[in-house]
Structure formats: structure tokens, C-alpha cells
Amino acid sequence: MIKGVVLSILASCLFGLLYYYPVLLRPLSVVDIFCWRLLTSFPAIIVLIVIEKEWSAIGLLFTRIKQQPLFLLGLLCSSLLLTIQMIIFIWAPLNGHGLSASLGYFLLPLSMVIFGQLFYKEKLSFLQKIAVVLAILGVSVEIYITGAFSWETAVIALGYPIYFMIRRKLQIEGIAGTFSDFFFIFLGCLIYCIFSYDLSKVMSDIRHFHIYIPMLGIITAIAFAMYFVARRLLPMGLFGLLGYVEPVLLTFVSVIFLHESVSAQHIISYGLIWLAVCVLALEGGIFMLRAIKRKRIR
Q: Strand, helix or coil at 155?
């Protein structure tokens, strides 16, 4: 279990590094950075599949595509939703919206709880109800004070649950789903680069960022590898609880390295949302302690 915890935290640290990484690739555009990330990370994902010996899952994926044409449409939709999220992940820290994006990741567990209740009739516990109320209050205060709610926060908090619902409907969990998303995005980036880039542009990028561009793919692949191994080693409750580490790190990167700050008008709304996340984390901690206690009794 300790190994799983360490790997999960290290994966979150690498995703935190990737949040700052676009700054190192200036003056490349968001689209340039996005394309380079996919073009360099997809081969690394293939290596990960080879190491994990998951080719049977990939073969089954292509068999389903051949047998069910509409399944391909669902996969493309899943890839498109992930593309939007990955572009925001790059765009936000480059344009002074790192904190807004990190707030979206803080809201994500709460939105997952709400989506589960609305679409899958999952029951809310007492603490989950408190967390939802606090989050709604936080969002309401934000809208009342500023007259709006950050679009990037909303897209992250609402877009990811829709993405996960589509993957659940398509039954493409695990590394096969990741391969599918990265495969179609990789093809899109490759086509875009063929028609939009010339050889001098590619050589110029590689010459100026000869270390940073390859490392972008390597870090992405290592982060995903640690994430997958941790998910396999850890109980679901503890794995979900450790998921709160990443938005904390993204906030840390935004404040310390991107020099963003929470203005006075956002303190109340952000505070309510962060408090809601703490309530969910408390529930997760209680759940894990009870699970460990039951295991010891047996």
C-alpha cells in the first residue's frame, strides 16, 4: 500500500510540473505545445502498453470498432472532450488563469458526486450533502460578487464528469481507454502538423527546445504509468482521496511559480469551495479508517 501511495503522490507532482511546463516552452503557442505533447507522449504510451502487456485490451478495442461503427463515434467524442481539457491545462497557466483552472479541479470531485446522484441515482451521504451545499454557496457567492463564473473553472468541473460518463457508457476504462483517447488525438495533431507546419518550423522548435520537447512526452508517460500502477495497488477509497493532492499542487504552482493571487472578492467563494473539498476529504478519510478497521477484525 505504501508503494501505491508514493506512486500516486509522485504522479500528482509530475502533473503539477506539467502545469508549469508550458512556461518553459515560450514563445511556442498553446496549439504548438499541445501538438508536441501528444506527438512525444503517444510513443511513450505505446511503450507503457508493451511493458504492462496490455495488447489484448488494445486488440479488443479495435475489434469493437470494426463490429460497432457507432462505437467509433463515441471514441471520437471522448477524445474531443479530453482535447478540450488538455488545451485548457496548457492555456490557463500561460494566460494568468492557473488559479481558476485549479479551482475547477477542486470542484471536480464535487461535480462527480452531483452527476452520480443525478444520472445514476447514487445516494448522497450526510457529509456529501454538506459538501454540495458549501460548493453551491461558493459558486453562488462568486456569481453574485463578480457577475460571472470563470468559464475555465466551469468547463473543467462539468466537462470531466461528462467525459467519464461517456467512457463508462463505452466501457473503455483503464489503459485501453487512455490509448484510444491519445491515439485519435495523436492522429489529429499529426494531420494538423503536416498541413500547418513546414520542416523549418519543426527543426526550429527542436533546435531551441531540444531537451524540453522530448522531456514533455517522457514526463507525461511516466506520470500516467505511476497513476495506473497506483490505481492497481490501492483501494479505491484511498486512491480517490489521494486525488485531492493534484489540485492542491496546481494551486501551489499557480501562486508560487506563476505569481497569481486570490483577490479579496474571491476569498469567500474560494474558501467555501475549498471547505467543501475538505469535507469530502474528511469523509474519504473516515471511510478508509473504517475499511482498515474491518480488515483487521477479519
A: helix
- Contacts with 74 (C-beta within 8 Å, 6 or more apart), sequence order: 166, 169, 170
Q: Do the Cβ atoms of 269 and 32 come closer than 8 Å?
A: no
pLDDT tier for residue 237 given thresholds of 50, 70 and 90: low
**pLDDT of the residue at 191:** 92
pTM of the model: 0.86
Q: Is residue 246 a contact partner of residue 254, using CB atoms and an 8 Å limit?
A: no
Burial 248-287 (b: 16+ CB within 10 A, else e): bbbbebbeeebebeeeeebeebbebbbebbebbbebbeeb
- Give 244's pLDDT tier (boundaries 50, 70, 90): confident
Rounded to an integer, the average pLDDT of 189-210 is 85
**139: Cβ contacts below 8 Å, ≥ 6 apart:** 149, 269, 273
Element (H, E) at 197: none
Residue spans per domain, the chain: 2-297
- C-alpha–C-alpha distance, residues 268 and 273, integer Å: 9
Contact 242, 115 (CB under 8 A): no
Estimate to the nearest angstrom the gap between the alpha carbon of 236 and the chain centroid.
Answer: 17
Which residue is associated with the grid cell 491515439?
183
The label of the residue with cell 494568468 reads 96
In sequence order, the 6+-apart residues with CB closer than 8 A to the CB of 186 are 38, 39, 42
Give pLDDT, residue 80.
96
pLDDT band of 155, cuts 50, 70, 90: very high
Contact of 276 with 110, CB cutoff 8 Å = yes
Cell 485501453, located at residue:
176
pLDDT top residue among 50 and 146:
50
Q: Which residue, among 165, 181, 230, has the nearest Cα to 5 in the 3D structure?
A: 230
With vertex at residue 247, the alpha carbon angle to CA 242 and CA 250, rounded to the nearest 5 degrees, is: 130
